[in-house]
Amino acid sequence: MAAETGPGAAVPLELRRERGMVCVEYPGVVHNVSKMLPTLGGEEGVSRIYADPTKRLELYFRPKDPYCHPVCANRFSTSSLLLRIKRKTRRRAAVPGAEACPKVMFEMEILGIISTTYKFQGMSDFQYLAVHTDADGRHTSMYDKVLMLKPEKEDFFNQELPLYIPPPIFSRLDSPVDYFYRPDIQHREGYNNPTISGENLIGLSRARRPHNAIFVNFEEDEVPMQPLEAAVQTWKKVCTNPIDRKVEEELRKLFDLRPIWSRSAVKANISVHPDKLKVLLPFMAYYMITGPWRSLWIRYGYDPRKNPDAKIYQVLDFRIRCGMKYGYTPNDMPVKTKRSAYNYSLPITVKKTSSQLAMQDLKQGLGPSGMASARKSTSNKYKLKDSVYIFREGALPPYRQMFYQFCDLNVEELQKIIHRNDGAENVCTERDGWCLPKTSDDLRNAMSGMIRQALRSKRPALFSSPTKADAGKEQLTYEYVEDEEDDEEEEEFKPSDGSENEMETEILDYV
To answer: How far apart are the C-alpha atoms of 390 and 495, rounded to whole Å?
Structure first.
């Protein structure tokens, strides 16, 4: 739209709402757009980042250098307009004796609405070039020796090179922050610093967590008869309302029902906050870290090594068998992992602020008015599905690694394998417990066949190939299929948010 206006005049413009645009505030002077766009990953890279709100836009000043560390842009929601203005000047014919006065015209057009803007507000990460410095100070580029740009022969991999292993990132944060140093502690006169040994050199800056759980190895002669006094006092401080006392009574009944439980099984039978369960379990049981009852909580005073009846409480470490030799890849499997490397927080990702429920402090009680509603809302709030510890024929496990107790294998064929030596349990070994040798291997093979059949019914396309249909020659690689009903009833608290090794994750809660 062209207009001849003076200072302060208003010009009507047409707003094109159908054209949404994205703005990138580029931290540099752009002379060539064709060279600028590859620094942002090209149109495909920008579109991919824009499609994921949790990602930050990366700018590589040296896009052809794989060791270039990017500078990242934050994403903002905006309501800006992209306005194009053209200034046209017409020179009028010169009149003798008069000063020339050019005629100025402005053409203005709204190209679209900018709903998203990427702003580079942080600093670039430290850069480490692939350069080797000789003893005489000469610098030699290593890119042609380190980067394999085409198929190379064996000599390329056997050549002598200086060690060059730069980290993927140097700085976890790209914005400067103030570090508030703590002042030196002023001790009283006569205070002596504790002696430092090699065992506690690492981690002196943090006070250790209260070590209230009792860990027992399979080789130890005796088992504890009662909890530590610190565990008793800690639970008394936390148990401040009737709900906590009810949870304590429910857990006591569980250990009366059977003396050995896994934490996942407890969480599937009792609705209790995970932080309170960490305090309550050491109050009720000790933790076995080796042997056939490893990673399980055992009632105080009960020694499964002296009771053949404890055979049914032994643990089975059931893991995925995945690889090309089995005919499957991890991407083909419908079972999800407990933890993925993609969930780590890096500078190029933005942590989504998930809606967290307001949790009361562990020591805070409930008033009479809110007691009924709270009891109703928290009755099953933290309770997990029983599939986290029970195996059933025709169902797939929820995770790629599961810890089952023998008594929770609800299949008659599996129970026959477990009870093959009933009445003839002579010795308890660390590997097989009270069962026959290789009982765990037989159970895994039988369970693999059952899960294979369940997987065939849920994903027949995986078995369409004749080589994959041969069940006798191939062991199972399996994962979990989430039905539509499972998606609607997603558990808020997963069996484990840490390492895939359940025992390692649980021990870290107490050390």
So the answer is: 13
pLDDT < 70 stretches in the chain = 1-9, 11, 13, 92-100, 193-211, 320-379, 459-511
- Fill in the amino acid letter for 62: R
The model's pLDDT over 322-380, given as tens digits with 9 standing for 90+, comes to: 655 544 555 656 666 665 544 545 566 665 544 333 333 444 443 444 444 444 444 67
Residue 424, classified by CB atoms within 10 Å of its CB into exposed (0-12), middle (13-18) or buried (19+), is exposed
User: What pLDDT score was predicted for residue 409?
Assistant: 94
DSSP alpha helix (H) spans, 137-241: 143-146, 154-158, 229-238
Alpha carbon separation from 361 to 209, 241, 274, 494 (Å, rounded)? 18, 12, 13, 21
Per-residue pLDDT at 59: 93
Output the CA angle 360-364-365, nearest 5 degrees: 110
Q: Are 281 and 261 in contact (CB under 8 A)?
A: no
3-state secondary structure of 107: strand
Q: Are 477 and 322 in contact (CB under 8 A)?
A: yes
Q: What is the DSSP letter of 453?
A: H
Q: Is the pTM higher than 0.90?
A: no
Rounded Cα–Cα distance for residues 103 and 93 (Å): 11
Q: Which two tokens stand for residue 498?
A: 């840490």
Q: Sheet holding 260-261: strands in order across?
A: 215-216, 285-288, 296-299, 260-261
Residues 6+ apart with CB under 8 A from 34: none
The neighbour count for residue 183, using CB atoms within 10 Å, is 5
